[in-house]
Design brief:
alpha/beta, 2 domains, eight-stranded mixed β-sheet, six-stranded parallel β-sheet, 17 helices, about 35% helix
Length: about 450
């Protein structure tokens, strides 16, 4: 008999639950929700007792699917599989759910919660008893004790609910891992496409882009995507010690299926997504500047921040990215040739009317006793310098470790300066210990 139902967009979680529950589980791919909850309900066979919804289902999808399942299968228990806790009260208030389970919960925790909820459904009279009910309890009071109820703040409840239908069990699991759910963008939230550009290579453009992504992800976790649009020689994946299965060519050619596109993204431990450059230079011909521009526009409908690391200079792909930019971060270093090169780039962009509305000028590798001071640099550029980043060995050490500089050594002078770039984009991105928490990395 099918006892449990899983509706999810995570193939990894589905595989794990299949291995745990075997014949007791039926699965329906979450992609069917694109056509409405009825498409999912129509594919449910038998009469499952408990439905697990998630990961990677939105609030709206979960709400409509819960209502449809309750209508078709009265009394069914509902467990939402998700990790994000900040808006948990909204989910509990807005949807009739019985438990919230982390996708990283152990098999033992998952099975124990399923057994307890199943037993409560029987004890409360919502569903009939079954012959294979291994954890059946005699009365509701015993069950409420077994559920080990907690309140939404994570503290033990001082009283058991008197209304059986209002019981909400929140499964606390360790360790608490970041949720991979992509947060929806509200109608009033302005999405930003931040293009990082430099007139030539070796200016620190890639380091700037990586740290922008890491810093903005602290205030917008899982709503930041970093695109390596240096289509021939991009090295963001190497700088972050990632081995992505898919590259910009694969993702840009994924069509307009948002679900399929999301499956091709590479997730970084610091809560942002990466789209790597093509693995070999000859593949760069497979994505045109026009296609790149259209792709960036599509990403802007999915993410709060789209950060683009461009090819040095003003080639086809760099210009296409700048056409989509809300912010331009222009990077140079503290030498006369580099400063003059950036000035020429500005002059051309002004002539092409492609200077982004928000402009940020970053000068890297600043040192004393080089024959230049800030006033000289600004005179050469013909523009104000917004952030000066001192030369630092920490930049090299962070890159060799595959870690963003602002998280590798928060006290490093270059890290503090780059943090200033992040704050120019989002003044709320003030570093705190809680925001900078990262997973332990193997040394």
């Amino acid at each position: 008999m099918t006892r449990y139902l899983l509706v999810s967009r995570s193939a990894e979680y589905e595989t794990r639950l299949r291995r745990l529950l075997r014949a007791r589980l039926q699965t329906v791919p979450g992609e069917y929700l694109t056509f409405g909850p009825g498409e999912v309900v129509d594919r449910v066979t038998d009469h499952p007792r408990v439905a697990l919804l998630g990961p990677l289902l939105s609030f709206e999808e979960t709400s409509t699917l819960t209502a449809s399942l309750a209508q078709e299968h009265p009394g069914i228990g509902v467990i939402v599989v998700r990790e994000q806790r900040s808006d948990l009260e909204d989910w509990v208030d807005g949807i009739e759910i019985h438990a919230v389970l982390s996708p990283e919960a152990t098999d033992a925790t998952t099975e124990a919660l399923l057994d307890r909820l199943d037993s409560w459904l029987t004890a409360s009279g919502r569903l009939p008893a079954t012959s294979d009910d291994a954890n059946e309890v005699d009365d509701l009071a015993d069950l409420e004790s077994a559920l080990d109820l907690v309140d939404l703040g994570g503290n033990e409840a001082t009283e058991s609910p008197t209304d059986a239908d209002a019981v909400v069990a929140v499964a606390e699991v360790e360790p608490s891992e970041p949720d991979w759910v992509l947060p929806p963008i509200g109608d009033t939230v302005r999405t930003e496409v931040i293009v990082v550009a430099a007139p030539k290579g070796g200016q620190g453009k890639t380091t700037t882009a990586i740290n922008l992504a890491a810093g903005l992800a602290e205030v917008a976790p899982n709503s930041v995507v970093l695109v390596d649009a240096d289509v021939q020689f991009g090295d963001i994946a190497n700088a972050l010690d990632l081995a992505p299965q898919y590259s910009l060519v694969d993702v840009a050619n994924a069509g307009h299926d948002e679900v399929a596109l999301k499956a091709l993204l590479t997730h970084h431990d610091d809560d942002f997504f990466v789209i790597a450059a093509p693995p070999s230079p000859e593949l760069a011909d497979e994505i045109t500047g026009e296609a790149l521009g259209e792709f960036l526009a599509r990403l802007a409908t999915m993410f709060r921040y789209v950060i683009v690391d461009t090819t040095p200079g003003l080639g086809e792909h760099a210009l296409a990215a700048l056409e989509q930019a809300t912010d331009g971060v222009f990077v140079t270093n503290f030498t006369v040739p580099s400063l003059r090169a950036l000035r020429k780039e500005f002059e051309l962009l002004v002539a092409l009317q492609l200077v982004p509305a928000n402009r940020h000028v970053i000068v890297n590798f600043v040192e004393k006793n080089t024959g230049l001071v800030l006033k000289d640099a600004e005179a050469i550029l013909g523009a104000r310098v917004d952030v000066q980043v001192p030369r630092s060995l920490g930049v090299v050490l962070a890159s060799n470790a595959g870690v963003p500089l602002i998280h590798h050594d928060v006290r490093d002078p270059a890290a503090k300066a780059i943090r200033g770039v992040v704050l120019r984009i989002d003044p709320n991105a003030v570093p705190t210990r809680k925001r900078i928490q990262r997973k332990a990395r193997a040394k």
